[in-house]
Structure formats: structure tokens, C-alpha cells
């Protein structure tokens, strides 16, 4: 999906919601456990309930890897089920020396070589340009680089001073701009870091930002939207647990719909105002 196609989806659906498919088999509603593939049955119901409200889906790969070969099968079926008008994110946080990154890229971007066919992957920037470029070698695919993450430990390294009034996450954003433009590169910024969004927008005015951390982690959609929205939309705000596990009964998909609808309705208001600090 291109930059303009993603932006158009946001304005058509009046939403910049990304539904995180962090599907934990231990949290599935009991009645799904007799399904041949309970994880896929759950994801299919969540996708059916939210597809008109979301512009992106983000399976967190850990939840599937932890299930062994069955997990990869559930992931493949889920990816195939996501509607074509939705952007797909492999939240895998990969990155290694070049030849290894090349194989990670193949695993997530190249269905002709037994890989999956995601639109994008999250990548850790710590190993530098040669760990990131192999992902960018895949035309039309996106890299989403960790910049300022939502967790408390983000301060340990990401906020270290790297220059006069510059912190490491800012150096990452500046350097990454020399690798690819906003049409191929996004940044992860936690919703819990909304105070820093104005600074980040100054460095990356046109980039899409993937913003996890509303819902279960307590980030504010209002603050993120006020500081992060751009004329193209420019945000993908992720919620996982607050949508997936809104209920663990037979009504789980309806409750997931309600949670997603509440976020989408709020997003539509912010898009209408179009405000940005
Ligand atoms: O900084 C980051 C980067 C990634 N994540 C991931 O997003 C979801 C958030 O899940 P919630 O249940 O909505 O809290 C999850 O997959 C994380 O691994 C993040 O939270 N923060």
C-alpha cells in the first residue's frame, strides 16, 4: 500500500485505528476452543467486527511464534483474511547484520520464497543502516523503525543525550531520513510519550507514526491526535488488549466492535478539526 493509498483510507474510513492482533490462546473465549484453529477463529471474528473501523492490523509476531508451527499457520491464515484495503504490520522488531536481516525481510515480505506478504515490519534501529536496508530492498514494503517506545524502559537508551539538546531517539529519526523517505519509512512513538510528539513532528513532519499505547497502557488518544495528526493523517494508533479482550464471552466480537467504534468515532472528530500543534 502506498503513502497516498493509506492516507485515502484514513479519510474514507474516518479512522487511523490499527487493531493489534496480540492473540493469546490462554485468553480465548471458551466456546472457541473446540474450533480446529481457535486463534484464527478468534482473529477472523475480530477482523469481521472491526474491518470497517480500522485502517490497519498489527499481529504481534511473538504471540504466534510462541505457538510453534501451529502459530505460524494461524498467522498466515489471519494475514490472508485481512481485507486488501487494510495496511498490515508485522510487529516483529527485527534487525541484525545485513545477510540475516535479508532473511528476516524474506520471511515477512516474500511469499514467492515461502515468506509472508506483510506491507510492513517493525525494525529495531540499534544495529544501524546495514541492518535496516535489506528490508527497504523490497519495493513497495515499509519499515517501521522504533524511535521512542511506550514502555518505561524506553528512557534507558532512547533518551540518552547524543548532542546539544538531542536525544538518541531524535538521532535515530534524523539518520533514518537518509535511508528512505516518508513513503517507505514510519516511526514507532508510544502514546505514553505524547509530550514528545511535537518535537518528533518537527523532525518528521510528513512521516506516518505508528502509535501503540492507548487502551491498556493508558495513553491519551486526544493528546496523540492533537500533536501528531498531519494533513495526510500521518498516524496509525494501535490498540490491542482493550479491543481483543473487551469480553471473554460469546459476545467478544460485539464488544470488540464497540471498543473499536468508540476509538474510531473519537478519531473522526479529530480528523474533522484537523488540528495540530
Ligand atoms: O513502543 C511500543 C512498541 C510496540 N508495542 C506493541 O503494541 C502493542 C500494544 O498492545 P496493547 O495491548 O494495546 O497495550 C503490543 O503488541 C506491543 O508489543 C508497544 O506497546 N509499544
UniProtKB/TrEMBL annotation:
- The source's domain of life comes to Bacteria
Name of the encoding gene: pyrF
HAMAP family referenced in this protein's UniProt entry, alphabetically: OMPdecase_type2 (MF_01215)
Q: Which residues form the Orotidine 5'-phosphate decarboxylase domain?
A: 16-256
Q: Which reaction does it catalyse?
A: orotidine 5'-phosphate + H(+) = UMP + CO2
What the entry lists under InterPro entries is as follows: Aldolase_TIM, OMPdecase_type-2, OMPdeCOase_dom, RibuloseP-bd_barrel
One MF annotation (Gene Ontology) recorded for this entry: orotidine-5'-phosphate decarboxylase activity
Keyword Lyase appears in the UniProt entry: yes
Protein name, entry field = Orotidine 5'-phosphate decarboxylase
The catalytic residues are 93 (proton donor)
Q: Which pathway does this chain act in?
A: Pyrimidine metabolism; UMP biosynthesis via de novo pathway; UMP from orotate: step 2/2
The enzyme's first-digit EC class, named in words, is: lyase
Supply the source organism for this entry.
Spirosoma taeanense
One GO-annotated biological process of the protein: 'de novo' UMP biosynthetic process
Query: Transmembrane stretches, by residue range?
Result: none
So what EC number does this one have?
4.1.1.23
As given in the record, the signal peptide range reads none
Q: Name one Pfam family in it.
A: OMPdecase
- Give the UniProt family note: Belongs to the OMP decarboxylase family. Type 2 subfamily.
Amino acid at each position: 500500500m502506498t503513502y497516498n493509498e493509506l492516507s485515502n483510507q484514513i479519510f474514507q474510513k474516518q479512522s487511523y485505528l490499527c487493531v493489534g492482533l496480540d492473540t493469546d490462546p490462554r485468553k480465548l473465549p471458551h466456546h472457541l476452543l473446540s474450533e480446529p484453529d481457535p486463534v484464527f477463529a478468534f482473529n477472523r471474528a475480530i477482523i469481521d467486527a472491526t474491518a470497517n473501523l480500522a485502517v490497519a492490523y498489527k499481529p504481534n509476531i511473538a504471540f504466534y511464534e510462541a505457538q510453534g508451527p501451529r502459530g505460524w499457520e494461524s498467522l498466515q491464515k489471519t494475514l490472508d483474511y485481512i481485507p486488501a484495503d487494510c495496511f498490515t504490520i508485522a510487529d516483529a522488531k527485527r534487525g541484525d547484520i545485513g545477510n540475516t536481516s535479508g532473511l528476516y525481510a524474506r520471511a515477512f515480505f516474500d511469499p514467492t520464497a515461502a515468506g509472508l506478504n506483510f506491507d510492513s515490519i517493525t525494525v529495531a534501529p540499534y544495529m544501524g543502516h546495514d541492518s535496516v536496508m535489506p528490508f527497504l530492498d523490497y519495493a513497495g514494503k515499509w519499515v517501521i523503525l522504533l524511535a521512542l517506545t511506550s514502555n518505561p524502559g524506553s528512557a534507558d537508551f532512547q533518551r540518552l543525550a547524543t548532542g546539544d539538546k538531542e536525544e538518541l531517539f531524535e538521532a535515530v529519526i534524523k539518520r533514518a531520513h537518509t535511508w528512505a523517505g516518508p513513503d517507505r519509512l514510519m516511526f514507532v512513538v508510544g502514546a505514553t510519550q505524547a509530550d514528545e510528539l511535537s518535537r518528533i513532528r518537527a523532525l518528521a513532519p510528513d512521516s506516518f507514526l505508528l502509535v501503540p499505547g492507548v487502551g491498556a497502557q493508558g495513553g491519551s488518544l486526544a493528546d496523540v491526535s492533537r500533536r501528531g495528526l498531519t494533513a495526510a493523517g500521518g498516524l496509525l494508533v494501535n490498540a490491542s488488549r482493550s479491543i481483543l479482550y473487551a469480553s471473554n464471552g460469546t459476545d467478544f466480537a460485539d464488544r470488540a466492535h464497540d471498543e473499536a467504534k468508540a476509538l474510531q468515532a473519537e478519531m473522526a472528530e479529530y480528523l474533522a478539526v484537523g488540528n495540530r500543534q
